[in-house]
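User: Let's play a game. I give you a shape written as tokens, and you guess the letters that built it. Ready? Here's round one.
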């Protein structure tokens, strides 16, 4: 067994390394250390670069956020300013609404007070209205005899009393119903129909033919005789030309037996003369002759008489109604042609109207007036106490 004589080996107990080998090892370690240092430095540089990039990105993002926050803050300030203005306007409007509310509350209190007053006096006012209505009905009966208007007025008054729903008004409604029944039992005169008939006759007045302008009828012409009979006719009823014609006819009839030719000529002359002149017997006095102006006033006076009859009808004046119709009938008989259909129709209508009477016994409703008056006075006394 070989033993080393190297003291270092002996001291350490390990084999000794040659110095050259140790230098190689030291150089490798230095290079490794340098490599690790470079790697560490590169890593640190990369880390620093990465950190810088991150910081730059953070700074950019922070700037954007700060700008956005600034814009949001400006927008918020604007919104706050708008909100302040809106709040101020709302406060102003609220003050106005509060003032109007206070005014409306005051008005409501006044209206409630007025309503309570009206409610307390409603019965008295309604009763006063019914009394006024019944007074109007009594005036219509007394002045114009208008039974229809009185019936309507009493029905309206009874309906008002029914809406009041007051048991104290039962007796008053009973009295009103009794007066209503008496009014409805009265026979009504057809004033509207009579007025229309009078209006129709008045419209025909301008077209009715006058008597002195009427042509003789066939029956009266058949009664006309020869020239000898015409001499018996009154000269006051015939024109002067008719009397002269009668005398000429008598002179022509005097020759005693003329020659045939001459007789033929006289016959033809006589026939022609008969065609020119017509002689008529008048059994009644001749109708008066009227000038155009007189004819116009005659028709207008006839219309006035008929209009007066209508006024008398409206006021239920039977005496005036009968007098106007009789005067109109006399004028129709004297001045107008009785054979004309329009004249006959007018005469028949007037005769029917004269047969009717406007004298209707109108009942009184004084009982209802007295009952309403007494009840109103009693309620006023009770309210005063």
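Assistant: Ready! My guess for every position:
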């Amino acid at each position: 067994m070989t033993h080393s004589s190297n003291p270092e080996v002996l001291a350490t107990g390990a084999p000794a390394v040659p110095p050259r080998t140790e230098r190689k090892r030291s150089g490798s370690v230095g290079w490794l250390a340098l490599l690790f240092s470079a790697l560490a430095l590169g890593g640190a540089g990369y880390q620093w670069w990465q950190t810088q990039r991150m910081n730059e990105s953070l700074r950019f993002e922070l700037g954007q956020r700060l700008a956005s926050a600034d814009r949001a803050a400006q927008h918020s300030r604007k919104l706050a300013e708008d909100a302040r203005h809106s709040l101020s306007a709302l406060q102003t409007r609220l003050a106005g609404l509060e003032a109007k509310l206070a005014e409306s509350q005051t008005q409501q209190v006044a209206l409630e007070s007025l309503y309570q007053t009206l409610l307390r006096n409603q019965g008295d006012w309604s009763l006063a209205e019914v009394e006024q209505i019944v007074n109007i009905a009594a005036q219509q009966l007394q002045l114009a005899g208008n039974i229809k208007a009185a019936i309507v007025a009493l029905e309206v008054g009874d309906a008002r009393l029914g809406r009041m729903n007051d048991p104290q008004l039962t007796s008053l409604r009973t009295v009103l119903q009794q007066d209503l029944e008496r009014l409805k039992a009265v026979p009504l005169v057809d004033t509207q129909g009579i007025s229309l008939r009078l209006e129709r006759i008045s419209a025909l007045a301008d077209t009715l033919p006058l008597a002195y302008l009427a042509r003789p009828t066939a029956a009266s012409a058949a009664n006309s005789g020869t020239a000898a009979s015409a001499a018996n006719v009154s000269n006051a009823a015939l024109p002067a030309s008719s009397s002269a014609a009668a005398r000429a006819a008598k002179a022509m009839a005097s020759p005693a037996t003329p020659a045939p030719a001459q007789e033929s000529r006289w016959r033809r002359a006589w026939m022609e003369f008969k065609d020119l002149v017509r002689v008529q017997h008048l059994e009644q006095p001749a109708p008066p002759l009227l000038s155009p102006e007189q004819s116009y006033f005659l028709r207008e006076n006839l219309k006035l008489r008929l209009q007066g009859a209508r006024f008398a009808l409206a006021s239920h004046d039977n005496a005036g109604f009968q007098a106007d119709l009789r005067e109109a009938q006399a004028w129709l008989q004297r001045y107008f042609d009785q054979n004309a259909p329009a004249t006959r129709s007018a005469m028949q209508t007037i005769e029917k109207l004269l047969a009717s009477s406007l004298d209707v016994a109108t009942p009184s409703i004084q009982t209802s007036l007295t009952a309403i008056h007494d009840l109103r006075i009693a309620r006023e006394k009770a309210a005063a106490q």
